[in-house]
Amino acid sequence: MCNHNPRRAYTLLLWLLLPYVFFHLLWRARKQPEYLRHIPERFGFYSTHCNKPIIWLHTVSVGETRAAAGLVRCLQEKYPDHQLLLTHTTPTGRAAGKQLYGDDVQQVYLPYDYPFAVRRFLNHFHPRIGILLETEIWFNLIHACHAEKIPLLLLNARLSEKSATRYARYPRLAKSGLRELSYIAAQSGNDAARLTALGAGNVFVMGNLKFDIEPPSTMLELGRKLRAQFGEDRKVFLAASTRTGEEALILDALRKIDIPQLLTVIVPRHPQRFDEVAVLLTQRGTRFQRRSEGHAVATEIQVVLGDSMGEMFAYYTACDIAFIGGSLLPFGGQNLIEACAAGRPVLIGPHTYNFAQASQLAVDGGAAVRVETIIGLAHSLQNLFSNPVEIKKMGDAGLRFVSEHRGATEQALAHINRCMTK
Q1: pLDDT band at residue 3, thresholds of 50, 70 and 90?
Q2: Where are the beta strands (DSSP E) in 225-293?
Q3: Residue among 227, 274, 219, 208 nearest 247 (CA)
Q4: What pLDDT, in 10s, does the model give residues 307-321?
């Protein structure tokens, strides 16, 4: 990076990548046409306006949007004279926000990190405070907020060893950006240590917002209805948030077990893959139906394809055992806390670096079992379904695990209040 101003070289690189930005949107739109909607917002052009002071919260996609639910409710209660603005990066995150909050919050896309787009965003909304969640480190955005004296917090921050190594290649850029944040509150001591090693100041440990999530009553009721559709007497295995290549491995594992009348529910992480997984099931000769068909599952059906969004808590409620995808292959894993909060035993693969602390705590607490291979997955499923007492024991351990780690929302509010009262 440039010796004098590392941000200048970073911005130059962004400009060189501008043609790729448009290509990326077109490519993603092949399977998800929503990527072609609201494109001007990605460059700082907005049509929505607000007459109230704005509290701005950036939740990239579905996981962050759902994790922020408790914090959003608390901010609405504590600051009723303010408007909450949620920014997203993905259409699925925006759709999740609409489903969770309706018209109670404003929603737009966060602009790409070009200085002109960032300035337009800040000049349009004039947020009183900004809150970034998890690993959203955008150097021009951070600098613009710092220059405008807009407090900007990085909350629920996590930084894997892999990401820390990548940032460490550009030490001056990383340090200058992190130092311009008002506060950083990390999920764990390890995350805090990695951020501090990169040069961050004002780093605290707050825990993980995902532990504070409460299963919505509507999802619990939907889960009971789904279970009735699946069959109250059938054993139900849920493969949740699966990623490319994992569905085939899970189907291979299922061939190695003997559980009469087992029903497997597969919910791909990304909606643009629903049809892709349907093709795989057809090619495998698997008898399946889609969740969207909405009717009772016949006894000869082997798999239900969960082709719906925003219903994960319902799926967890409706299953007996949950496997959390993104972990059989090296995608870094997905959030296992919701399954534990629903009182379900959890299986995870070897690759959970994006949720390293939560995954290990769940394993140590008896709420989750880590499997290294499809043989291990098959073995664990066979053992658990043959032992209802162990299923109950793991489910109870999951409830304790979640309960013992609540409180991150209060920590986040304390940091936000500190900035709001300055």
Answers
A1: very low
A2: 236-242, 263-268, 288-290
A3: 274
A4: 998 899 999 999 999
> 139 is written with which tokens?
């150097």
Q: Which of 34, 41, 64, 276 is catalytic?
A: 64
Task: Confirm whether 1 is domain-assigned.
Answer: no
For the stretch 293-344, pLDDT in tens is: 999 999 999 999 999 988 999 999 999 999 999 999 999 999 999 999 999 9
Shared-domain flag, residues 334 and 345: yes
Give the pair of three-digit tokens for residue 43.
């460059």
Compute the distance between CA of residue 320 and CA of residue 384 in angstroms, rounded to an integer.
10
Once rounded to an integer, what is the mean pLDDT over residues 169-176? Answer: 94
Residue 381 CB neighbour total at 10 angstroms: 24
Same domain (yes/no): 100, 244? no
Same domain, 281 and 186: no
- Please indicate, yes or no, whether residues 256 and 234 belong to a single structural domain of this protein: yes
Token code pair at residue 291: 């969740």
Decide if 124 is inside a domain.
yes
- The model's pLDDT over 252-279, given as tens digits with 9 standing for 90+, comes to 999 999 999 999 999 999 888 999 999 9
Looking at the structure, tell me whether residues 244 and 389 fall in a common domain. yes
> Is 64 annotated in the active site?
yes
- The parent domain of residue 30 ranges over 6-207+407-420
